[in-house]
Amino acid sequence: MNQSADQNAGHPLSAPLAPVPGSGHIFDVTRRLSTVDMDENRYLRIDGIARHLQDAGVDHLAHTGALESHPHWIVRRTVIDVLQPITWPTRLRIRRWCSGVSPRWCTMRVRIDADGDGGLVETEGFWIHMNKQTMSPSRLADEFFELMSTTTDDHRLHWRQWLDAPLPPTGGTPYPLRRTDTDHFRHITNTAYWHAVHEFTADATELTRGPHRFVLEHNKPIRFGEILDVHADRTDDALTLWFAVDHDTRAIAQLRRLEED
Questions:
Q1: Cβ distance 84 to 43 under 8 Å?
Q2: What are the φ and ψ backbone dihedral angles of 237, each rounded to 5 degrees?
Q3: How confident is the model at residue 242 (pLDDT cuts 50, 70, 90)?
Q4: All residues at 6 or more sequence positions from 198 whose CB lies less than 8 Å from its CB, including other chains
């Protein structure tokens, strides 16, 4: 199979992320890179990037006064472009802004710049605002919608799945889940998926020696106690991972090269 070999140059899997806007609401903070997030080469790991995205999202809500009114979100897709690896020790400048919005969800761009070594990571997440009681998408408050709209002209954002290849017929690799991987929705946390992505892609150095992109899309939640298998398929230009429970695909991730400018 060759699901990863996307021949359509216009497909969003290959499209660059939106640049930093010249005006509008941009959340801008600095943080020190912790040793807990670095790999054996002192690079910021992919799961460490995911943690910074999660923390920046909460801090951004608190900064805008929206944490109490909009506390519950799930991420449907995360795109992470490692344009230049970030190396410890360093300080990180993290900028977060909205790149597309609808009444119940939005895409949030995050740019991470490293102080000193020139490391650069660009990301975008598709975030759905949730009602925890009904477990369904919930409408954004008008003032929050208006604030997010200041950095994008896309006010009718629609979901489009990027990764939809069927589960390979070959067997998967069991991947154990821990209680510490569970969030308040009783789902496996977003960061836990990225632990597995790191585990299965760390040796794909021919894909990561230059600029590269990770994409992770969630289809259904995984709960603690379920038996998770990770299936992998490798092509010349990408590595694709399926997260499956009893042959039911819950999420798909892909690592692929990025074309250099």
A1: no
A2: -115, 0
A3: very high
A4: 39, 45, 46, 47
Instruction: Find the mean pLDDT for residues 129-152.
Output: 95
Model's pTM, two decimal places?
Answer: 0.94
198-207 pLDDT, tens digit each: 999 999 999 9
Three-state SS string over 69-108 comes to CCCCEEEEEEEEEEEECCECCCEEEEEEEEEEECCCEEEE
Count the neighbouring beta carbons within 10 Å of the beta carbon of residue 250: 19
Of the chain, the percentage scoring pLDDT greater than 70 comes to 95
Rounded distance, CA 54 to CA 78, Å?
Answer: 11
Domains of the chain (ranges; CATH) run 25-158 (3.10.129.10), 165-261 (3.10.129.10)
Of 140, 137, 136, 139, whose CA–CA distance to 148 is shortest?
140
Helix (H, G, I), strand (E, B) or coil at 201: helix
The single residue listed with the structure tokens 């799945």 is 161
Mean pLDDT of all residues belonging to the chain: 93
Check: CB of residue 217 under 8 Å from CB of residue 206: no
E strands, the chain, are: 27-32, 73-84, 91-101, 105-114, 120-131, 136-137, 173-174, 212-218, 228-234, 238-245, 248-257
